[in-house]
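Box 3.1 A note on notation
Throughout this textbook, protein chains are presented in two layers. The first layer is the amino acid sequence; the second is a token string describing backbone geometry. Keep the layers aligned when reading.
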Amino acid sequence: MAVVHGDSDSPALDSPTIDALVDGDHPGWASRPAQDSDAVRRYRETLGCGDPAADDDPISMVAEAVDAKATVVRNALESAGDEDALNALDAVLDLASLERELIEDGARRRTFALLQVQEGLSKLRVVDDVATIVDRAPRELVESCGFDRAVLFRVHEGRMVMESAYFGDDSDGAEKMVAFAQSVAPPLNHMLLETEMIRRHAPAIVRDARNDPRVNRPIIDFSMTHSYVAAPVMPTGKVIGFLHADRLYSGRQVDEIDRDTVWAFAEGFGYAFERTVLLERMRRQHAEVRSALKSADDAARALQDADLDLRKVEPVERGPAARSLAEVQTRVLAMLTRREVEVLRLMAAGRTNQQIADELVISAGTVKSHVKRVLRKLHATNRAEAASAYVRLASVPDGWSG
């Protein structure tokens, strides 16, 4: 969409003339027709009003209309002297009032439950350790969302494996629950409720756990639950676990709002868990990269010091030069000039040709020539053999000249 920026300092003659937008004069309105629900249409037809969303309290307006109509009916019944009908009318009005209260109470509970879910998930989002977030999930579902108990299962090799549980103050009971559930680890057969949740990707509510054939009987009997709600954990579309919750201690039956609360929490937990797993993998890969870089650095240093390391190790089988030097040291000493001895000493110390040249203040080419003559005179095939020969000759007084 093009945006026109005006300049208040520009003369009026330089400013383009822009007409105001006119309702209905743009294709956007035609492409977004209003989609009213049945309730909205009935509201308009019954009360002759516009959009209920524009009214301050449309429910109160409906209630006032009911009262107005009920007054007409009551007056007619009083005129007819029909007491039974009047009592029935009062009962209908009471039931209508109760219905309204239940609707409002459900709306308040859902709003509050949503806030509770957000509060619980906000505490999980700061966790950066997989083991911690798995342990914390049932606790936040209980403490933030108002349940009495909650457990977390993971799906592993076609079975339900309980990973963690939180029973409020009953930490011992929670530990026993996890231990027992892990010992039985129920398989996800076609009769199990959780198998149905995997197929449907949807939560479930069990109102009578003692008699419901879809539940895992050993776990239900051990946990003593009467009713519970469950929801799948599926951050990537694949079910990787389940969250269960009940209200055993308070004695309340779970309902659809409880089911939807656990469903919303399970969805948010799945994303938080996925994020935590990715962070942990990144940390592990970062550590592996650092370790690999260190290993590479160590390997480079080892290569750099390889010649020096070779000089520290006596060959198992002596080369021709070593044997010759061991037998006729004085003759070999007489073969080397003082400069060649200096070059040999620095070679044995691990110096490169350039380093030898810098220390002796000669050119690298001259050093190379000295090295070749030293190897030839000592019958050495490489610098390592020459250095080994120097170590053997080191004890011989160097008061000789070339």
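The longest helix spans residues 256-304. The mean pLDDT is 82.
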